[in-house]
Amino acid sequence: MKNLVILGGGYGGMRILQRIFQHIPSDINVILVDRMPYHGLKTEYYALAAGTISDKHTRVDFPTHPQLSYRNANVSEIDIENNKIHFSNGEDLEYEDLIIGLGCEDKYHNVPGADKYTYSIQTIENARNAYQALNNLNKNELVCIVGGGLSGVEMASELRESRPDIRIKLLDRGTRILSSFPEKLSNYVEGWFHEHDVEIVHNANITKVESNTLYNNDEAIDCGAIVWTAGIQPNKIVGNLNVEKDQYGRVVLTEQHHLLDNEHVFVVGDCASLPHAPSAQLAEGQAEQIAVVLAKRWNNEAPPESFPPIKLKGVLGSLGKKSGFGVLKDTALTGRVPRLLKSGVLWMYKNHNG
């Protein structure tokens, strides 16, 4: 029997599992390695941290199949030379084919103390920790959220809904939040924050973080809690791989999504060098193509020389439970409609995935 090992049960890993079982030969064992015994809805961790949804609502069961097994473990190293995965408990796992989907982690931009004194929402464990801190705050305490991108905006709005009794400050290094979105959406969201008493600080420059103290342009701000949403980078396990990477530290791949010099090692999701910014949609689109490559190989056929560009349907964001914003097919949406659309997409994913 040969081992196809998938590291990470995120959006890319889940989509690959859904697509390969109708093609998989009888001599292939599929082993999914993940720290958790279920798929976590990472796009909803901000709501878990804010306390507006329960832990249960961020979990989806992994699929089952006679040739699929699971291993709950922490990866410590990927040994590409010897086709082995090393785990933190000292055990190893050999593979014939490997799919790396370990996701991303916070990027702290070398800000002293940021990794130690801020809360993250990048993993479900981190989101749980943030929930405990944010929901134990006293009335009128200040929460500082660093980063005015999609994660920071959704975190701030959801926290406002959960804790109307606390103060919230959103710090962004640009001249407007949601800088990758049309200006119309940025203005709408800033108006929503003004209406709901969330303070926005533009042109922020976080120079240092200490316990319950954030320094913006070296000026101290006392905080009850600090949440970091100011950028991501590939998982450190992938960062340690001796392979070609782009300027963001993401792995450069062939058209078939495997390493340039190793057709048996694929990379999916946030750690892959792709034309678009990392997202769940992008990981799923890439996973569809990886599944085609594997199916062709198993049928002793040549994989496609290239694939059409992965098309993204758009981006939807929430402002609490009643309002939202988004871009669909180059059309900017604000208000109730994009919030309902996002809820519908999430419902479909949770109830039809797998």
From TrEMBL:
Residues 3-281 form the FAD/NAD(P)-binding domain. One of its GO terms (molecular function) is NAD(P)H dehydrogenase (quinone) activity. GO terms for biological process: aerobic electron transport chain. Its cofactor is FAD. The keyword Flavoprotein applies. It comes from the Bacteria. Gene3D superfamilies: 3.50.50.100. Keywords: FAD, Flavoprotein, Oxidoreductase. SUPFAM superfamilies: FAD/NAD(P)-binding domain. Belongs to the NADH dehydrogenase family. This is NADH dehydrogenase. It comes from Bacillus solimangrovi.
